[in-house]
Amino acid sequence: MKILIIGGTGFLGSCIIKRLETDHQIAVLHQGKTNLILSESVHEILGSRNELESVKEKIIAFGPEIILDMILSSEKQAIELLKVCKGIARRVIAVSSSDVYEAFAIFLGFLQGMFPPL
Q1: Residue 29 φ/ψ, nearest 5 degrees
Q2: Is 59 in a helix, a strand, or coil?
Q3: CATH class of the 2-108 domain in this structure
Q4: For the segment 13-53, what is each residue's pLDDT rounded down to a tens digit?
Q5: Confidence of residue 109 (pLDDT cuts 50, 70, 90)
Q6: How many Cα atoms sit within 13 Å of 45 on the Cβ side?
Q7: Which residue among 31, 70, 81, 112 is least packed, with the fewest CB closer than 10 Å?
Q8: Rounded Cα–Cα distance for residues 111 and 12 (Å)
């Protein structure tokens, strides 16, 4: 199966890539700011998460069946993702841990506010 991972350069994304690359064709869309150590079988698509339209042709060329977005953080990004990828992938999966980090930042005193409800 062909899987495009958006923002797969962090802790979780890099682990997901390593796990999936043995059984699937993987492409990673990232800005190129992180020095990734990828196997030769993993494709790289350089571009900005906030400018998906600019890499749409590269996404189409890879032909993902699934798009896994590791850095989706706003409604605007979700709308753009669905618009750009309509008719390309059968599934779009959003993974986010921002709620966890917000609560942790409040706990540490970096942010003011109430803990988000569970």
Answers
A1: -100, 120
A2: helix
A3: alpha beta
A4: 888 998 999 999 999 999 888 777 778 889 999 999 899 99
A5: confident
A6: 26
A7: 112
A8: 24
Residue 117 tokens, joined: 């409800």
- Residue 81 is given by DSSP the state H
CB 10 within 8 A of CB 72: no
Contacts 24+ apart (CB under 8 A), 90-93: 90/65, 90/66, 91/65, 91/66, 91/67, 92/66, 92/67, 93/66, 93/67, 93/68, 93/69
For residue 82 the two structure tokens come to 């669905």
Alpha-helical runs (H) found in 1-118: 11-20, 56-62, 75-85, 98-108
pLDDT value at position 118?
61
Type of residue at 37: I
Q: Which residues contact 34 (CB under 8 A, 6 or more apart)?
A: 9
* DSSP single-letter state for residue 115: P
